[in-house]
């Protein structure tokens, strides 16, 4: 279980508050959509949860590890188990989808593999399994530079899974994709939650959140104003955002 208490974050020399006293508990296998207007704090929340931003205040407990007060063990846990998925994930365009999946972030990949691109056969099989799960088997040997936006996004998801992610935190993962491709990426993420108990936290537009998430968090001016199960939001709920 993941427990966030009193997460507070300010930015800039004037210490402008962008996240106010946010407390939530997250269960394994949830697909949480973060919704809210522009500047409401969605990206900052996702960046704080993936420890890319320093917290001003708050506590962050993952499986009973106090992440912020246990710097080495806590940071290592987040680094190993959490994947941060950007809007346009970085893939090496000259390497195949498979190689991109196998050769993950520098922190997760042995130096000799980064250098030589060599892989062990069991790693190869594992990566092919994940690519198959994500419907990318026929793209495994295609250069990443020639993949479509949705395929790139799914390759990045495959890379996160191959490197052991239990939580995928994604900042607007389907922005710029056509509606059909966006739905297919989100269906993929939802299936991972259901079938493999992966937890997903993703900033999404309201309509997609309503359709795909099991839970919706709504932010307004850095405040958590909504925390409901994934469903169509009512008029008054939307008015809070
Ligand atoms: N590096 C920064 N320096 C100054 N202000 C920042 C910085 N990062 C974020 N902010 C401010 O913090 C607030 C929250 O920003 P954030 O990017 O988290 O919002 P958002 O909900 O993701 O917005 P959008 O939907 O437009 O991406 C905004 O007012 C933004 O201007």
From TrEMBL:
Molecular functions per Gene Ontology: ATP binding
What InterPro entries does the entry give?
AAA+_ATPase, ABC_transporter-like_ATP-bd, MetN_ABC_transporter-like, P-loop_NTPase
A UniProt-annotated Pfam family: ABC_tran
Classification via Gene3D superfamilies: P-loop containing nucleotide triphosphate hydrolases (3.40.50.300)
State the UniProt keywords alphabetically.
ATP-binding, Cell membrane, Membrane, Nucleotide-binding, Translocase, Transport
Domain spans labelled ABC transporter: 2-241
Q: What is this protein called?
A: Phosphonate transport system ATP-binding protein
């Amino acid at each position: 279980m993941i427990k966030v208490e009193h997460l507070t974050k300010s930015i800039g020399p004037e210490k402008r508050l962008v996240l106010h006293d946010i407390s939530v508990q997250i269960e394994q296998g949830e697909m949480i959509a973060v919704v809210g207007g522009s500047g409401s704090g969605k990206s900052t929340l996702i960046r704080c949860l993936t420890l890319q931003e320093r917290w001003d205040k708050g506590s962050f407990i993952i499986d009973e590890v106090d992440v912020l007060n246990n710097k080495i063990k806590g940071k290592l846990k987040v680094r190993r188990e959490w994947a941060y998925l950007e809007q346009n994930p970085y893939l090496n365009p000259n390497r195949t989808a498979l190689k991109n999946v196998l050769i993950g972030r520098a922190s997760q990949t042995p130096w000799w593999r980064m250098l030589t691109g060599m892989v062990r056969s069991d790693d190869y099989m594992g990566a092919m399994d994940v690519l198959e799960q994500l419907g990318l088997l026929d793209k495994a040997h295609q250069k990443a530079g020639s993949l479509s936006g949705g395929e790139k996004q799914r390759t990045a998801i495959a890379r996160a899974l191959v490197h052991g992610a239990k939580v995928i935190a994604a900042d607007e993962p389907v922005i710029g994709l056509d509606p059909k491709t966006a739905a297919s990426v989100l269906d993929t993420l939802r299936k991972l939650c259901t079938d493999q108990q992966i937890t997903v936290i993703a900033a999404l537009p309201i309509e997609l959140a309503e359709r795909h998430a099991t839970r919706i968090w709504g932010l307004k001016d850095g405040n958590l104003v909504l925390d409901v199960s994934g469903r169509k939001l009512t008029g008054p709920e939307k008015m809070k955002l």
